[in-house]
Amino acid sequence: MSSAATVTETNFTDLKLLHRGKVRDVYEIDEDRLLLVATDRLSAFDCILPTPIENKGRVLTQISAFWFDKLKDVCDNHLITADFTKMPAAVQAHAELAGRSMLVKRTEVLPVECVVRGYLEGSGWKDYKATGWTSGHSLPPGLKHCDRLLEPLFTPATKAASGHDENISGLDFAKIVGNKVAAYLKSTSLELYRRAAEYALTKGIIIADTKFEFGRDRRGNILLIDEILTPDSSRFWQRDKYEPGHAQPSFDKQFVREYLETLDWDKTPPAPPLPPEIAAATSDRYLEAYRLLTGRGLNS
Ligand SMILES: Nc1ncnc2c1ncn2[C@@H]1O[C@H](COP(=O)(O)OP(=O)(O)OP(=O)(O)O)[C@@H](O)[C@H]1O
Ligand SMILES: [Mg+2]
C-alpha cells in the first residue's frame, strides 16, 4: 500500500460529527459507538499548524491500537476495532478513514486526566524547582531537569474548560470521582505506565510521562478510553540521546519546534506553514516511533 494522501479535516454529511479536537475528529456511529479519527494536523505551542504531516494520523491510531492490545490484561478498554474492513459500511464508504480510525465503545468520560510522570519535566519540574514538591509528593533535593524519578508519580489533573488542565491533589481527585474509583484509576494508570515505559525503553524510547482518560459505559464499567501512549498524549524521548540537566528534544516535534523558534512568530494563531523538508522530517519521526515500538513498518 502506498502512503495515503494527507487528511487535514474531515467533513461527512452522512456521519454525525460530535467534536473536533486539535488533532482528532469524533463521530457518532450510534448510541453505543463512536469513531475516533486521527487527522494529520499537528499542533505545536498549542496552535494547530496549517501544514499537515503525512502519515501522522495513521501512526497515532496504530500506536494506540498497538498499546490497547498489548495492555488489555491490565484493564478493560474502549477499542472495538481499528481494522477498517471490520467497520460499519457507512465508515468504509470513506476510504480516507482507513488506518486512521478507531471504532470505540461510547462512554461517559470521567472529568479527570490521569497523568503519570516517570521523569521530572513540565509542570512537575516547575513545581519542584519552586517548592521541592510536585503534586503533593515531596522529592529529594538536588534533582536535575528531566531526571528519572525513583518511582513514577500519579499527578491527576482536571479537564479544564479553558483548555489548560490544572493539577489537583489526591483528595480533590477522590472528591470528583469517589474514593473507590480514585484508587482504581491511580493503581491502573501507574501499572499501565510502568508496563509501557519498561517495554518502550527496550525499544529505544523513553516515555517520560503520559496522560490517560477513562470513561464509564452504560453498564457502569470503567474503561480506558481516548488515545493512549502516543507522542501526542505523552512525552517521548530518544533513549540514546537522554541527558538530564536540560530539556530533552521531543521525539516527534523536535524539528518543528526548532524551526518555529527561528521565526519571528509570537506563538499565537495563526501559526506559520512548515517548509516541506521540516514536514517530511517530522513525518519520518512519527513513522520511526511506530517502527521502533512495534517492530514493523506502518504498511507491513
Ligand atoms: N470511548 C469514548 N467515549 C466518549 N468519549 C471519548 C471516548 N474516547 C475519547 N473520547 C473523547 O473524545 C474526545 C477526543 O477529542 P480530542 O482529544 O481530539 O480533543 P480535545 O480533548 O477536545 O482537545 P485536545 O486536542 O486538546 O486533545 C475527547 O473529549 C475524549 O475525552
Ligand atoms: Mg484530548
Polypeptide structure, described:
The chain has helices spanning 56-70, 89-92, 122-131, 170-177, 179-202, 254-261, 276-294; strands at residues 16-20, 24-30, 33-38, 43-44, 47-48, 79-81, 101-105, 108-109, 112-119, 133-134, 137-138, 148-154, 157-158, 205-216, 222-225, 234-238. Helix content is 29%, strand content 25%. The model has no long low-confidence stretch (mean pLDDT 96). Helix 1 runs parallel beside helix 7 (276-294) and helix 6 (254-261) runs antiparallel to helix 7 (276-294). The longest helix has 24 residues, at 179-202. Strands 8, 9, 12, 13, 14, 15 and 16 form a seven-stranded antiparallel beta sheet that branches. A five-stranded antiparallel beta sheet has the order 1-2-3-7-6. The chain has a two-stranded antiparallel ribbon with strand order 4-5. It folds into two domains: 16-107 and 255-294, Phosphorylase Kinase, domain 1, CATH 3.30.200.20; 109-241, D-amino Acid Aminotransferase, Chain A, domain 1. The protein is an alpha+beta fold and 300 residues long. The radius of gyration is 19 Å and the shape is globular. Adenosine-5'-triphosphate (ATP) binds next to strand 2, strand 7 and strand 14.
